[in-house]
Amino acid sequence: MSRVGKNPVAVPDGVDVKIDGVLVTAKGKLGELQYRATEDVQIAMEDGKVTVTPANEGKRARAMWGTARARIQNMVRGVSEGFKRDLEITGVGYRAAVQGSTLNLQLGYSHDINYPIPEGLKVVCERQSAISISGADKQLVGQFAAEVRGMRAPEPYKGKGVRYSDEQIIRKEGKKK
After folding, report:
1. Cα distance between residue 21 and residue 14, in whole Å
2. Is residue 100 part of a domain?
3. CATH number, residue 97
4. Exposure of 118 in the CB half-sphere (CA atoms within 13 A)
5. Shortest CA distance to 103 belongs to which of 138, 139, 149, 136?
6. What is the distance between the alpha carbons of residues 144 and 55, in angstroms, rounded to a whole number?
7. Residue 163 belongs to what H/E stretch?
8. Cβ(86)–Cβ(130) under 8 Å?
């Protein structure tokens, strides 16, 4: 039995959830998101809560049970509160700036990196060494943050590079005489 799947998803005030078979649509103050579940789960709305149950006793149905519930929970939370990921840039001459719908990164390469910001995300640079990514879609926020971090991942000797604000970099000791 799925420990995640058996819990119902509470729908807060201001969020409208519509269920059409396996298509779930959530609309709130931060936008509208859709999720198409597999035929292995049944989704129902009762008493302001969304419940997910497996359609059969198969292994795939049990696996998709928790997955579908988690995706619906992330949709509901995304359109009501949103998701945010913060990045920090460490290194001499490393900086970031938002120019229109592109993120301009200077990360020690011979050229600047102009990275387009996807639709539905808000990217803010409070200062040159801090990037804040926010949006309603958890997957999109996390993917964009991972791609920006991947431009220059933090290295273990001096800690230079792009890292998540809550990430701990394990530092190595340098060469000895």
Report:
1. 23
2. yes
3. 3.90.930.12
4. 16
5. 149
6. 34
7. strand 161-164
8. yes
Lowest mean pLDDT among 2-16, 33-47, 84-98: 2-16
Range of the domain at 96: 83-164
Beta partners for residue 83, in sequence order = 135
What tokens appear for 87 in the block? 């990045």
Query: Could you tell me if residue 96 is left (phi over 0), alpha (psi between -120 and 50 degrees) or otherwise beta?
Result: beta
* Dihedral angle over CA of 66, 71, 73, 76, nearest 10: -160
Amino acid at 13: D
**The residue count for the chain:** 177
Q: What is the value of pTM for the model shown?
A: 0.88
Neighbours of 170 (CB within 10 A): 7
C-alpha–C-alpha distance, residues 99 and 36, integer Å: 34
Query: What are the pLDDT digits (tens) for 28-57?
Result: 999 899 999 888 899 999 888 999 988 888
